[in-house]
Design goal:
By secondary structure, the protein is an alpha+beta fold. The protein folds into three domains: 1-208, Thrombin, subunit H (Beta Barrel); 211-304; 307-371, no CATH class. It is 30% helix and 19% strand. The protein contains eleven helices and 15 strands. The strands form three sheets. Strands 5-4-1-2-3-7-6 form a seven-stranded antiparallel sheet. It has a six-stranded antiparallel sheet with strand order 8-9-10-13-12-11. It has a two-stranded antiparallel ribbon with strand order 14-15. Helix 6 packs across helix 7 (251-263). The radius of gyration is 24 Å and the shape is elongated.
């Protein structure tokens, strides 16, 4: 999370006298678009005669375009505010929206302008960092809960934090809305991003492609690989629980059914089932079919990897102001999966490297001596080679 990009939001209200208003938090998710809580952007006592204002951390206040680009129901409590960003901000890497479900015990972090920070000057609140563990929720629950490791003394201390993004492993999985009662301010409640991404208007507003079209393209490619070997199809389907019934089905239809089933799995599930199928084929001397399964994995992983991340990278890929593109990946193996998903292709790794391989398009480390990725010696810094 880039703390320099956290946005303080001020919305004038009609009660409380001149200058009265409500403070909240937001975070940019694409150029000129701020993700926040609905009740922050649109309070019940909103003064429509005065504009909303925003302030990026360390900067001056500026009038927002006062454009509510998108708003959820009050139950979901999320909104997108349109506002012209300063030129320097427009060149930053914004938040990666993720369609991953909240998982129990996952570490989360966020930041906002909560009253608990203290030392708040007029119209310039102190940024408060928060962290804790995630609590999952049923799919039909509009919100999930977050444990707070260092809670405010009272529930009112969290006021102003609403709208803060919930970051897990560098990706935004939620938007903080309220502090539930009876938890001694030790819990917060947030709206999951995966639910927001199912809304066509929201997805269009943040610049995402049609997920159905993307899945269809991958499904066709995966089925094409499977059609090369009926042995591979049978091994993959038998590795699943329950196995797919392909009796009396033509090979092209078998391939399509298997492709659809694979695309419904998560990353660990694909790795587990395809490893099982590959090992069974190799043990029976069916090397060609085992190779087909290996090729399959290189395409399925980019297809099912976090759609929010893939599309966020895709929209930034063609940003002419970006010299380098930051990826939410700790290792180059995952970075290649992300970029393969962006390009709708199979992953391509260097075949001569063991362990965690690098993608063939991965840039080498700076030339500071030693050996490069191909094993070629480099000269010492400052020398010509």
């Amino acid at each position: 999370m880039n703390k320099n990009l956290v946005v303080e939001i001020f919305v004038p209200t009609s009660d409380g006298g001149p200058g009265a208003g409500q403070f909240g938090t937001g975070y940019p998710v694409t150029n000129d678009l701020i993700l926040t809580a609905r009740h922050v952007a649109k309070p019940k006592n909103r003064d429509a005669d005065r504009p909303r204002e925003i302030r990026f951390t360390g900067r001056d206040w500026c009038d927002c375009a006062d454009q509510l680009v998108w708003e959820s129901t009050s139950e979901s409590d999320v909104a997108l505010l349109g506002c012209k960003f300063p030129h320097e901000i427009r060149r930053e890497v914004f938040g990666f929206l993720s369609n991953a479900r909240p998982e129990d015990h996952a570490p989360w972090s966020g930041a906002g302008f909560a009253d608990a920070g203290g030392d708040n000057k007029a119209r310039k609140h102190r940024l408060v960092s928060v962290q804790g563990r995630v609590h999952s929720a049923p799919d039909d629950d509009p919100q999930f809960e977050l444990g707070a490791d260092y809670p405010a003394d009272v529930e009112a201390g969290w006021q102003g934090l609403s709208g803060s993004p919930v970051f897990v492993h560098g990706k935004i999985i939620g938007v903080i809305g309220v502090c539930p009662k009876n938890f001694a301010a030790r819990r917060l409640r947030a709206t999951p991003v995966w639910k927001l991404l199912q809304d066509t208007e929201f997805s269009n507003a943040v610049g995402y492609d049609d997920q159905v079209d993307r899945r269809r393209r991958f499904e066709q490619q995966i089925a094409g690989i499977l059609e090369e070997s009926q042995d591979a199809i049978q091994a993959v389907t038998l590795s699943m629980d329950p196995p797919i019934n392909l009796a009396g089905v033509a090979v092209p239809d078998q391939a399509e059914k298997t492709a659809r089933r694979l695309l419904d799995l998560d990353v660990p599930g694909v790795i587990e089932h395809c490893t099982r199928a590959h090992d069974a084929l190799s043990a029976n001397g069916r090397a060609n079919a085992a190779r087909v399964v290996s090729d399959l994995v290189q395409l399925v992983l980019p297809a099912i990897y976090d759609h929010g991340v893939i599309e966020a990278v895709r929209t930034r890929k063609y940003n002419v102001d970006a010299a380098l593109l930051e990826l939410p990946a700790g290792i180059r193996t995952v970075a290649e999966i992300i970029m393969a998903g962006v390009d709708c292709r199979k992953t391509r790794y260097r075949s001569d490297r063991g362990g965690l391989p690098e993608g063939v398009y991965s840039l080498p480390l700076p030339q500071e001596g030693g050996f490069d990725a191909d094993g070629e010696a480099r000269g010492r810094p400052g020398t010509n080679t």
